[in-house]
Amino acid sequence: MDALIAALRELRTQIRPCTICYNLATGDTCTVCADPRRERTTVCVVEDAVNVLALERTNAYRGVYHVLGGALSPLKDVGPEDLRVRELVERVRRDEVREVILATSSNVEGEATAVYLARLLKPLEVATTRLAQGLPAGADLEFTDDLTIQRALENRRDY
Predict the structure, then answer these.
(1) Is the Cα dihedral 25, 98, 45, 130 positive or negative?
(2) How confident is the prediction for the chain on average, in pLDDT?
(3) Of the residues 20, 31, 89, 143, which has the fewest C-beta atoms closer than 10 A?
(4) What values do phi and psi take at 63, rounded to 5?
């Protein structure tokens, strides 16, 4: 038990936010930002560091990230000043970003955050996209909620 407690204390002192994207890091920058092969003109905005892990598991995205540290939530008293919104805008201006992918959750808070960010980024003339939403692979329609089916219909593509 003592070894576990010591390991957790050590972990707590070693893990810090990346100075570029605010992902979890053991040094100044996280492994994604430290990788010279990453496409730095595309930034994927996520709510939390666990979302970076989920996207990285797919090996489908080669850009970089920006971790907001949550989502807008008036009921929880979380506004733009409580998130890393200002840092995102500064980064888009400074780093010549061409596309911002909004990968916030599809719940009310995540949608509100995506809409807010899209409006904020519009004057910067950067392409702003949202992750497609719809049916998960292997899903049965009869067990899928109405909103997911609606979004799958809205986001359909040629086959």
Answers:
(1) negative
(2) 92
(3) 143
(4) -85, -160
Q: Quick one: which H or E segment has residue 146?
A: helix 146-154
At 52, list the tokens: 């970076």
Residue 86 structure tokens: 């200002």
**In terms of C-beta density within 10 A (0-12 exposed, 13-18 middle, 19 or more buried), how is residue 66 classed?**
buried
- Judge if pTM exceeds 0.85: yes
DSSP code, position 78: B
Task: Compute the average pLDDT of residues 4-12.
Answer: 86
Q: pLDDT tens digits, residue range 28-38?
A: 999 999 999 99
Tokens standing for 82?
């409580």
Taking the C-alpha atoms of residue 84 and residue 87, their distance in angstroms, rounded to an integer, is 5
- Residue 84: name the closest of 54, 125, 43 by CA: 43
Burial of 15 (0-12, 13-18, 19+ CB in 10 A): exposed
Q: Let me know: does 69 contact 80? Beta carbons within 8 Å.
A: no
54 — alpha (psi -120 to 50), left (phi > 0) or beta?
alpha
Question: In the beta sheet, which residues pair with residue 25?
Answer: 16
